[in-house]
Amino acid sequence: MLTFELARPQDAAMLADVQKRTFDDDARRYQDKEEDGPPGYDSVPWQAEQMQQGHYYKLLKDGGIVGGMIIFPSPTEEECHLGRIFIDPLYQNQGFGHEALHFLFVQYPAAKRWTLDTPSWAVRNHHFYEKHGFIRTGEIYDAGSSESIWEYERTGPLAEAGC
User: Fold this and answer.
1) Angle at 90 between CA 93 and CA 145, to 5 degrees
2) CA-to-CA distance for 77 and 24, rounded, in angstroms?
3) According to a count of CB atoms within 10 Å of the terminal CB, is the N or C end of the chain lower?
């Protein structure tokens, strides 16, 4: 079972380290590259900056940081953008991603719409989001890479249960 806490500046180095391991593992698995990730994924200052700009949660297992997620709610919190979610490769496939999304849906009950983007090549991410009710709504192409755009509309009985 995970616990969730807002990240603090002193967590930035550990979050950058976990994020680098996570994205580099995906790059090796799906792109045949040693290293690759989104902007700032390996930068300590970038992590601290995101703590100021959004709601940056650290995911804790037995007191240690095993992942993180950055949420950008609209002023009314009726819409949230999941800027990033990452779980250390050593802790993947244990249901922690599901726990993290459930936490977000409970933590932001007013959010009826969620958006996110993920690399087009990250097929494991695509499967995860589809399994949790997200729908791919578009693609963004930029400088030789592409991102898939995903949305989730919370309606019906699952919305009432916080899922």
Assistant:
1) 80
2) 32
3) N
Retrieve residue 157's tokens. Answer: 């009985």
Side-chain-facing half-sphere of 162: CA atoms under 13 Å: 12
- Mean pLDDT of successive 10-residue stretches along the chain, which has 163 residues: 96 95 78 72 92 97 96 93 93 94 94 89 85 89 76 65 43
Which of 111, 131, 129 lies closest to 120, judged by CA? 129
- DSSP class of residue 10 equals G
Residue that the structure tokens 């009985």 belong to: 157
Query: Any bridge partners for residue 9, and if so which?
Result: none
Q: What angle do CA 65, 67, 68 make, to 5 degrees?
A: 110
| Residue 44 DSSP class | H
H or E segment to which residue 48 belongs:
helix 44-53
User: Token match 């916080």: residue?
Assistant: 162
pTM of the model: 0.87
**How far, in Å, CA of 62 to CA of 159, rounded?**
30
